[in-house]
Amino acid sequence: MNTSLFRAASRPAARLSQIPATSRSIAVRRYATAFNWEDPLLASELYTDDELAIQETARQYCQERLQPRVLDAYRNENYDRKILEEMGELGLLGASIEGYGCAGVSTVASGLITKEVERVDSGYRSGMSVQSSLAMTAIHEFGTQELKERLLPGLAKGKLAGCFGLTEPNHGSDPGSMETIARVHPTQKGVYLLSGSKTWITNSPISDVLIVWAKLQSTGKIRGFAVERSKCPPGTLETPALKNKSALRASITGMIQLDNCPVAVENMFPVVEGLTGPFTCLNSARLGIAFGAMGALEDCINRARTYALERKQFKGNPLAKYQLIQKKLADAVTDATYGTLAATQVARLKDAGKCTPEMISLIKRQNCDRALANSRILQEVFGGNAASDEYHIARHVANLFVVQTYEGQSDIHALILGRAITGVQAFV
Amino acid sequence: MNTSLFRAASRPAARLSQIPATSRSIAVRRYATAFNWEDPLLASELYTDDELAIQETARQYCQERLQPRVLDAYRNENYDRKILEEMGELGLLGASIEGYGCAGVSTVASGLITKEVERVDSGYRSGMSVQSSLAMTAIHEFGTQELKERLLPGLAKGKLAGCFGLTEPNHGSDPGSMETIARVHPTQKGVYLLSGSKTWITNSPISDVLIVWAKLQSTGKIRGFAVERSKCPPGTLETPALKNKSALRASITGMIQLDNCPVAVENMFPVVEGLTGPFTCLNSARLGIAFGAMGALEDCINRARTYALERKQFKGNPLAKYQLIQKKLADAVTDATYGTLAATQVARLKDAGKCTPEMISLIKRQNCDRALANSRILQEVFGGNAASDEYHIARHVANLFVVQTYEGQSDIHALILGRAITGVQAFV
Amino acid sequence: MNTSLFRAASRPAARLSQIPATSRSIAVRRYATAFNWEDPLLASELYTDDELAIQETARQYCQERLQPRVLDAYRNENYDRKILEEMGELGLLGASIEGYGCAGVSTVASGLITKEVERVDSGYRSGMSVQSSLAMTAIHEFGTQELKERLLPGLAKGKLAGCFGLTEPNHGSDPGSMETIARVHPTQKGVYLLSGSKTWITNSPISDVLIVWAKLQSTGKIRGFAVERSKCPPGTLETPALKNKSALRASITGMIQLDNCPVAVENMFPVVEGLTGPFTCLNSARLGIAFGAMGALEDCINRARTYALERKQFKGNPLAKYQLIQKKLADAVTDATYGTLAATQVARLKDAGKCTPEMISLIKRQNCDRALANSRILQEVFGGNAASDEYHIARHVANLFVVQTYEGQSDIHALILGRAITGVQAFV
Amino acid sequence: MNTSLFRAASRPAARLSQIPATSRSIAVRRYATAFNWEDPLLASELYTDDELAIQETARQYCQERLQPRVLDAYRNENYDRKILEEMGELGLLGASIEGYGCAGVSTVASGLITKEVERVDSGYRSGMSVQSSLAMTAIHEFGTQELKERLLPGLAKGKLAGCFGLTEPNHGSDPGSMETIARVHPTQKGVYLLSGSKTWITNSPISDVLIVWAKLQSTGKIRGFAVERSKCPPGTLETPALKNKSALRASITGMIQLDNCPVAVENMFPVVEGLTGPFTCLNSARLGIAFGAMGALEDCINRARTYALERKQFKGNPLAKYQLIQKKLADAVTDATYGTLAATQVARLKDAGKCTPEMISLIKRQNCDRALANSRILQEVFGGNAASDEYHIARHVANLFVVQTYEGQSDIHALILGRAITGVQAFV
Fold first, then answer.
1. Helix (H, G, I), strand (E, B), or coil: what is residue D41?
2. Are residues C314 and B173, on separate chains, in Cβ contact within 8 Å?
3. What cofactor(s) does the depicted protein rely on (chains A, B, C, D) (predicted)?
4. Which of A129, B301, C116, C212 has the fewest Cβ atoms within 10 Å of its own Cβ atom?
5. Are B66 and B88 found together in one domain?
6. What is the value of pTM for the model shown?
């Protein structure tokens, strides 16, 4: 286990004294005898002490360091590159990978980290997920030993930034129709030339290592490449940022434009072929999202509850006194705890080697759907004040729509599940 | 552990060879490497071998003995009294109670039994729940030692039938306004006279032991009584059946009419006072319902899936081929597995002494709501054929409405949760 | 205009004095200055005096004569054949047809009649719709002059009962795959032999005239036949009743089994071919359903409101005092008035020759969906008492599921609309 | 009728040739024989030629002049003050007022104008509504003749900008608890001093005339004042803009801060007292919102449909080919046409003197709820591309949340309706 995480875990008392009261609930929950609205079905009972300590470390960092930055970042679409380094220092990047400077924590612990980051902002979580679950997982699962040793430590520390280029302008839900091509360099041995265009790529404008999936011209099969920006001749790799986004504005998003970009064969993943490669990474990320979305939802609940208790309307009653308000809170709390339990179960199954991709489709879909639906309903609690970004709720609502959509839109996962349930496909 | 259950558990091979293929999935699931639509997130991994064996025993009994009877029972509102004895023989009644001839299984195992019974019919499960969670739990938790020893063994075997009289014609969601009265017999020492009326009482017409909650005239406090029918003089106790029900027709429901019915002080629960008594029992029953509703939903899924695969429309495609059908199945499967995980978590917490009533409100409400909503949507898969009772779906739909309503209507539990979340009550 | 209807219309004062207060609202609504929850957006302003008088006549009949019979009819699946004659006497059958003893009222008036019948029970409305919109419309639109003159007057008076055989056991949503065959009699000139099987046919067991759609063996095209039971040799026509229905139990439903049943060429519709024939009739019926479903919903609203005002829970407050109850009522009232306005608009367009089938798909789908959804939510107002059939709500809920399903299940109409909106079909 | 509107109406041919094809549908719809997805139930049949011409004029202006500006305005929270003058020139401001330079059109025509503006952006519509329905209506209904003659013509032309100050920082849904105070000037006769604070006031930073509702200190009753900025001494009136809004960013919003601001008694509305004044104006605005929300929804439908036809996924099929997509479109189209019919009905009733406030609550609530819900579902059609503001859908989604919330949040209108339906209030 990585030492920075461990150190954090070994100093809970110190940490606790420094954080605001609302963040402390988890640490004391084991002895609670009363209903705890922040963990209604005691999911925390399912976690080891180490996992809880890791969550606490992540929570402390996120609340102390990320929360104060998010409003400005979101307003101005201004992602702070230093965040990756800070996360790297704490061991939050690629946390479930063993070795290469990574923390080697359980999938559950990794999910809890994700949840704490997304409690602040889905965009911050996106930036971390892309680095960890997509870029690092791709290299760790499929790269040569040399590639792992060369790139993973820098990515783990956040010295290098990574991204993951799968989606193309014309192919979102259907990556199999990919148009990006890799062809053998006509003269240089051991070199491929990549051409094509990827879009909606989180982190692409700041990435040093870009995982790019392309069809090998000779076979028509999809292969993966770790493109190192420093090695790309001018004009062969462009990563323009996409601005004026309606959500996830605290993350940075861009395109990857490849024009005969040369990549050494050593940077191609040697074995994996077809969609197995990208889908392995996506499954890792999606499992993180299933945890993360619950973090965002819990923040919405927390804020709506506080607002409902403080805001008075009609004869001085707090909004919390009204049935229509209570129902919104009860529904949201229920979905948050159900989703957390389900994500925990799948994470445990993954570590036990019993997880299937359909399980991940199921929890990614449901947790995102419910986080989105409930955040929208909780937004109503704020009335007109929801229009002020200082209440944070509209940001979560906007973010969660994209979270529901990317890495498999809800309907796509429904069809994946439908196929698994019936044995019949209904995509076309 | 009760021997009849244990014997069943020790012979899985023999049993498996006798039951239809569709019932076998649970027993073999541990070794499945593929997605299992009947247990998508492998809740079964959370159960011990004993718990799984108990579930299998219950499932076998329910599918072989109850399923063939349910159509006629529902059509004709004809509950077979022998079912209680059959269940008693297998150890399914009061299964989580230690001693007194009860099986003494875990709360999880008890929940799994409930689930298997409700997979067949919510009415059958109601009959069992009332006997186990309400009547037997009341006596076990609150009765004198003498009362326990005298009544529990007969109830455990199903030789005696029990019921639970709390709801009154004018007081459903608000039992605190109870009108039934117990007053000291004017002449007979050690005797109370009960007067009042209870309604919607499952099993009342066939009950030998009727738990009746009444306000003690002297204190105005609610107290519990185990009324033994055999000891009631003629005219003091009537239990007319309520017929022409729109649901739960396979169970028997009635009133309890008490007219100065004499009950010995020994049959009054000595300590418990107020709503603590009935709510303790209701919490036990509600936890069972949270499991049971998932059983009914799983049966709906199973039947809708089979129908969708067999029914062809438009160019010979099975309904299962259509996106709108797949989405219904995916949604239902998701809710069934989430609900099962949550109920399992609460059952484990209960055995660990960490369960609160609000947790039970949460899962009772959510699992019933989702079972009802999904069963209705799955009903659409059957098109016009849903109108035939031989497809069983309309029966589940009708039942689940009542299951959502009784033992705390969904809105009432929302307000219980709202109060627990906000600290403010919104009942009035 | 038919005289029996007209007489009714000319005696509003007399009628008003005889009907209960709750039924009177419509007649006085023109002068209301306050919000009228029974007609919140004053749809009645869109009706002529004649139309209002016809609605009043129908309402009076339905409330006085049908309402008292419905509980027993539904319990025992016992449709009273005399109802058709009573309706015939009042001019309610085939009401929008000109001539042949029919009332010749506007499509709006016809819709209002439908609404009043379904206010009592969807099954009663089904029996009327099948007679009017399906059997009579088929003959009137497509039959020879001789056939019209011979059959329509008897059907209009309810002396003859009619039904409509389109749906087959294997073909519900996709009637184009019909298997029933009509072939030329091998020896008798001018005679067709019909063979095949129809199911879920309202009124079939009591029908004298059965409209049967069959594929002409020689052409493979669908043609329509008016089969007269009295002319069918023994063993060539069977119409067994379907019992143990889960809904619409106050109507009678059966199969039509044809075994080389001889039908004279005069009874074949001479011109219409393909699905144009049945769809024309279905569109007429579906427009009626769009009105009718609003009648059933209004009855649910009326009953739920009354219950909510009379039932007291928690400190003596009526349920109506609680926010969660008020929201249910507000939602239902909104959908009822929106649906009524839309149906009225389409009925007016139909009389103006501007109605398209997609309009009818739209209102049939939406009004049925909303009636069903709201009736289910209103059912919650009744708590456990909803399980008693004497509150009538469970009957409406069960009925409305079938009403949503038959004559085009909601999803099928969604795809019809989707095709009309996009120009692309998604059925297969 | 105002001449600028009329001139527009008399030149339809010229206009039609200048506008893009997608805008032409309304003008030709009368002769359509096929289903028109843009007006599925032919609401246009309910409008007079004048009303249709006015709608066409408004549509042309909005599509040609507003649509090109909205993206930049929304991105930069940059409302162009000239828009009011342009609208004034066309006669769109205070259009239903007779005299004072206003167009004097029907309430229906006024609603159609609103719909066309909100088809572009709810913020633009907000700016217009505040000017027309709130500020101008307040003066027209309650001001002295002198005030009307002095202020209305400038407001009608857009030379003057107006706003409406009711909501306070602590009182949104419950304006009766207002804290802003008007007290008699201690020394100046005929002058009131206004002190207090209003928030979320559309147009306040640019307003010349600010309608302010305040409690008269002497009576405690709410009274209305037309505050003219030009007459306020420095430091007595501040109207800081509220920036960083999460929605309605194309409109300008601010506070009104009054610090002993002197207002002449001539500028106080002489008769109206209590909440009657502001509610009269709000009802006028809400009726406009009920139309406007349908315009925004129709734009979402139009854009989603176009995207679904152009975007190909899986074997080259357009998204429009998929059932799950078609259902989203069918649902939205249905709600758009139902909502338009209902708003039209209420507008007609208003002109006939038969409209009640509850009718307006009903349509404001339902149309906003459905516009919001459907826009969110249609957003899913765009997948990840919805995150780009160039697809406009996220803007509508964000806007419609506020539209649902302001001028009576959905739940508040539900309680208004609940009270009207049951006669019992459930606010507290």
1. coil
2. yes
3. FAD
4. B301
5. yes
6. 0.93
